[in-house]
Write a structure and sequence with these properties.
Number of helices: 13
Structural class: alpha/beta
CATH architecture of the largest domain: 2-Layer Sandwich
Helix content: 25-40%
Largest sheet: 6 strands, mixed
Number of domains: 2
Number of strands: 12
CATH topology of the largest domain: Nucleotidyltransferase, domain 5
Distance between the termini: 70 Å
Oligomer: single chain
Strand content: 15-25%
Order of helices and strands: EHEEEHEHEHHHHEEEEHEHHEHHH
Shape: globular
Length: about 375
């Protein structure tokens, strides 16, 4: 309203979220200042106090991380909502959106409910230590529209970790995470390092509407798994998948065992496809062990893999039932890849102990030895 011909962009997790959450709020706030609105593009034009016209665009974060949209534009203000749930936020902020504020000397506002110790946590740390930033923290108790008695009722019915994160905006490890031992500080590397390579392997999780996922993994002489790159794209034909696989020149490929026809195409193309175990629980136990022993090293550019690791979790435990055996089937394409690669290649010295533990969890019998 106060900057001549300003351009403002609001980002939600998805385009649908932008429409459902923010569209009507913006229209209400600007009221009679609205000159025109385009609900298809989610664009609002506003009569500016300086006599010009300002434009507000509402977008989904997927347009940035999937297509790189936004690059080359200029913004006076960027509003990023639910940042903790935006995949690869810091990488795409740095290389796509931050440059759009340079010539305008524009500003940015980042808001979110915490979601583990991810990019939003890093942003809050930066904000609290930098005098050029403003930082605000509010809980559900601070909202005058909320009834304190209702908040107390919720508090008595859910776990403390979940309450502290969702209602007190406190950073905590997500409840029910499959890979609780994954630690950005310990398992992620940013600089290229010399690797004493034994072999290169590539697990493949096929998709079409859902993304096809692949990981480029180098195993070294100490049985460390160096994940150097990822592939994560939708609408990939088998020809495209095979051509990409050939560029990696891997020793072995570990494709999704549920797709025998596609595996056969890979074999006919001359790719060495190994058999993959279908046992999800044993596979997860293997990956968990590798994280605990610090055998997995992930390149920081593998943003989709890191995102899935920080969101892959088990469903909520129900009363009078054993702990859930299988994770929620979402955000797991690269989780499947990681399991295919590790479980079918990692040397497990105490394999019998691991199997006994998994079987005990399956049976709910805590007295098994």
């Amino acid at each position: 309203m106060t900057i001549p011909n300003a351009h403002i962009t609001y980002y939600a997790q998805t385009f649908g979220d932008a429409r459902d959450i923010a569209w009507n709020i913006f229209l209400e706030v600007f009221g009679e200042a609205v000159i025109s609105k385009n609900e298809t593009l989610l664009e609002i034009k506003i009569a500016n106090l300086k006599g010009g016209t300002s434009v507000v665009n509402l977008k989904g974060w997927e347009s940035v991380y999937q297509s790189g949209k936004g690059r080359g534009t200029e913004n006076d203000l960027i509003l990023a909502d639910e940042v903790a749930f935006c995949r690869g936020f810091m990488e795409y902020w740095d290389k796509v959106l931050a440059p759009t504020l340079l010539t305008t000397k524009g500003r940015a506002v980042f808001g979110s409910t915490p979601n583990g110790f991810n990019d939003f946590h890093k942003l809050t740390q930066r904000a609290t230590l930098n005098k050029e930033w403003f930082y605000s923290h509010a809980t559900s108790y601070d909202n005058p529209a909320n009834e304190p008695a209702e908040i107390e009722r919720i508090k008595s019915e859910i776990s403390d970790d979940r309450f502290q994160q969702e209602y007190m905006a406190d950073f905590r490890k997500l409840e029910g995470l499959v890979y609780k031992d994954f630690d950005r500080e310990k398992h992620i590397y940013t600089e290229q390092r010399p690797i004493r390579e034994i072999k290169r392997i590539v697990p493949v999780d096929f998709g079409w509407t859902n993304p096809t996922g692949m990981l480029d993994i180098i195993i070294d002489y100490d049985n460390n798994y160096w994940i150097t790159d990822e592939f994560y794209k939708t609408n990939q034909t088998m020809e495209q998948i095979i051509n990409y696989c050939k560029t990696l020149r891997a020793y072995s490929y570990y494709p999704d065992p549920a797709e025998p026809d596609r595996i056969e195409e890979m074999k006919k193309a001359g790719l060495n496809c190994e058999e993959v175990s279908k046992d999800i629980e044993f596979g997860i136990a293997c990956v968990q062990k590798l994280f605990k022993t610090n055998k997995i090293k992930i390149n920081a550019k593998c943003i989709n893999l890191i995102y899935e690791l920080e969101n892959y979790r088990y469903p909520d435990k129900k009363d009078n039932q054993n702990e859930p055996e299988l994770p929620i089937k979402e955000k797991d394409h690269l989780m499947d890849c990681l399991r295919y690669a590790c479980y079918n290649t990692a040397p497990i010295e105490d394999d019998s102990v691991m199997r006994m533990k998994v079987l005990r969890n399956r049976m709910g019998n805590k007295s098994m030895a």
